[in-house]
Design brief:
The chain is of the alpha+beta class. It has one domain (5-78): SH3 type barrels. 27% of the residues lie in helices and 40% in strands. The chain is built from 1 helix and 5 strands, in the order E-E-E-E-E-H. It has one helix at 57-78; strands at residues 5-13, 16-21, 24-29, 43-47, 50-55. Strand 1 and strand 2 (16-21) form a beta hairpin. The radius of gyration is 14 Å and the shape is elongated.
Length: 81
């Protein structure tokens, strides 16, 4: 299963955005969105190194809440639960 990860843009250099989520930083290309569609501080969904969609902070937080639940459930299964 592949998931897009919500990340906040911390810097833009041409067609590459430096993005951060939960302390992890990654570069993502802006080829699918274009550099004029996003700004530093915006949230985007990153999938396979590409920013594929601009989202608002509320939607990013909702997605991370779901991902956190999935990770917690996976950890519970690994501990015999």
């Amino acid at each position: 299963m592949c998931l897009g990860i919500p990340m906040r843009i911390t810097a833009i250099n041409g067609l590459v955005a430096r993005c951060e989520a939960k302390g992890v930083e990654r570069d993502a290309t802006l080829l699918m969105l274009g550099p004029d569609e996003v700004s530093v501080g915006d949230y985007v969904v990153v999938h396979l190194g590409h920013a594929i969609e601009r989202i608002d902070a509320e939607r990013a937080a909702e997605a991370w809440a779901i991902y956190d639940e999935m990770l917690a459930a996976q950890e519970g299964l690994g501990q015999g639960g």
